[in-house]
Amino acid sequence: MHIAFAASECVPFSKTGGLGDVVGALPRALAELGHQVSVYVPRYRQTKLSDAQTVVRSITVPFDDRYRFCSVVSGGNHSGVRFYFVEYPPFFDRDALYGTSAGDYPDNAERFALFSRAVLEASKILGVPHVFHCHDWQSALIPILLRTQYAEDPAFRDVATVFTIHNMGYQGLFPPDTLPLLTLPWDLFTISKMEFFGNVNFLKGALVYSDFVTTVSRKYSQEIQTTEFGFGLEGVLRDRASTVTGILNGVDYDEWSPQTDKFIAAHYSPQDLGGKLSCKRDLLAAFGVTNADPRLPVIGIVSRFAAQKGFDLISQIMDRLAREEMIVVALGAGDKQYEEMFVRLNKQFPHKIAVKVAYDNAVAHKIEAGSDMFLMPSKYEPCGLNQIYSLKYGTVPIVRATGGLDDTIEPWDARTGRGTGFKFTEYSGEALLRTIKQALQAFHDQNSWQTLMRNGMKRDFSWNASAKEYVRVYDRARQTRGALVHEPPEEFAGVASVSHQLAK
Ligand code: ADP
Ligand code: GLC
Question: Is ligand 2 within 6 A of the CB of residue 440?
Answer without folding.
Answer: no
